[in-house]
């Protein structure tokens, strides 16, 4: 990537991520494609599993709750990193990996 790295990535709606006012919005926009890919892939796996279970005359009643649970866990796990973006006290390292010194003031 060029100067600015991922922060200058364009999202499908044509808005530059770096133009977002809040850092949390930037983080969500940068993670959104990966999350949507995961959800789409697990939906494909669910579809395949339902076909497989129906072909083998196996019960399919537990497949959808597993799908929903897996997606919910992945989306919930994203909340703490988004919170860390908004609260500097939750970010102990800067981009270079060195500890951030917070000054009182």
Protein model, in words:
By secondary structure, the protein is mainly alpha-helical. The protein has a domain at 13-78. 53% of the residues lie in helices and 0% in strands. The protein has helices spanning 23-55, 63-77, 79-86. Helix 1 runs antiparallel to helix 2 and helix 1 packs antiparallel against helix 3 (79-86). The longest helix has 33 residues, at 23-55. It is elongated.
Labels describing this entry:
53% helix, disordered N terminus, mainly alpha, 0% strand, 3 helices, 105 residues
Radius of gyration: 19 Å
Q: What distance separates the N and C termini?
A: 36 Å
Major sheet? none
Quaternary structure classification: single chain
Q: SSE string, helix = H, strand = E?
A: HHH
The percent of residues in helical segments reads 40-55%
The helix tally amounts to 3
Could you tell me the mean pLDDT? Answer: 75
Strand content: under 5%
Number of strands: 0
List the helices and strands and how they pair.
Layout: H1 23-55, H2 63-77, H3 79-86
Helix pairs in contact: 1-2, 1-3
Structure summary:
This protein is mostly helical and 105 residues long. The chain has a domain at 13-78.
């Amino acid at each position: 990537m060029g100067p600015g790295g991922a922060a200058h990535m364009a999202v499908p709606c044509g808005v530059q991520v770096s133009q977002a006012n809040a850092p949390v919005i930037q983080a969500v926009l940068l993670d959104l494609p990966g999350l949507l890919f995961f959800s789409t892939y697990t939906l494909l796996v669910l579809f395949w599993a339902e076909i497989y279970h129906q072909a083998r005359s196996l019960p399919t009643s537990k497949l959808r709750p597993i799908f929903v649970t897996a997606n919910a866990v992945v989306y919930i796990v994203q909340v703490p990193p988004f919170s860390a973006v908004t609260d500097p006290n939750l970010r102990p390292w800067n981009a270079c990996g060195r500890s951030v010194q917070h000054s009182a003031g």
